[in-house]
């Protein structure tokens, strides 16, 4: 096991404050622009891939195998990063997440541009994804390849170290006075969307390690609270086995109230919120992850779970290609 990194993140990513957003959300929102970690590969997955692909290179992998939803940001970031490193990429993508999207839009267009091989699978097959990836790796090995398997979302202990590092980056930004006056202190909470749990695990460990925030709020966009508490707990344990100095953990709150009708599907109220945020602040959220997370944060403030006016760091984890694949769902709101 190697914990080296391959440089992929264009960092440190900026932290910005748009006062108009404070009014919409109800607390003091600072946005960590991890939607700007790179070019077409941007988003939170690049931070995990710095560690995961370093291990793939160390093991002299010839092909990376991973999985995700049809419009997976993780699959797209992996496809592009693999192309930049000269490694082949095979993507198992669950079909049928986004109704009405064209076949060559958003992330899928970028996957194909990067030359990744797309292997479509059904939602039923996706449920058994870990075994499916394992079997694919065995087949590739028999064919003379050296496969490296990355789990859904890049979410294992090694990938989570990317968000421990992100919290180190935030600590330095706090120390430099880039998140308001230093006298304002650290953040009350770090808030972000949660889809496979690796970001939450890294944030919970890193926020405690570097004194960034007391609470880590993970807004589920699928599954439920019990599932994510279990999954994040497992990833936290894996990360600690790689770096035993990660003993403390911020209070983890998994909030599944804003996940909407289904993964990648939103309510009209959530879509209107995304429109209001864009018009008030120039910050573009996506309907699959970040839009639901900030909507969830506003509701957490409204019901008093996050104190009104608290200083909150919102991780903008990216997802723009997913929005561009769902333009049709915004008809009538623009
Ligand atoms: C994957 C993703 C997330 C969720 O991160 P996980 O580590 O998978 O929980 C949040 N936002 C965006 C835009 C993503 O692509």
Key traits:
single chain; about 325 residues; alpha/beta; six-stranded mixed beta sheet; four-stranded parallel beta sheet; binds pyridoxal-5'-phosphate
The coarse overall form would be globular
Secondary-structure element pattern, one letter each = EHEHEHEHEHHEHEHEHEHHEH
Widest sheet: strand order?
1-2-10-7-8-9
What distance lies between the first and last C-alpha atoms, to the nearest angstrom?
Answer: 49 Å
Portion of residues in helices?
40-55%
Q: What count of helical segments does DSSP give?
A: 12
- Secondary structure tally: strands: 10
| Largest beta-sheet characterization | 6 strands, mixed
Task: Work out the radius of gyration.
Answer: 19 Å
User: What ligand molecules are bound, each kind once?
Assistant: pyridoxal-5'-phosphate
Strand fraction equals 15-25%
The overall pLDDT average reads 97
Structural class: alpha/beta
Detail the poorly predicted runs: none
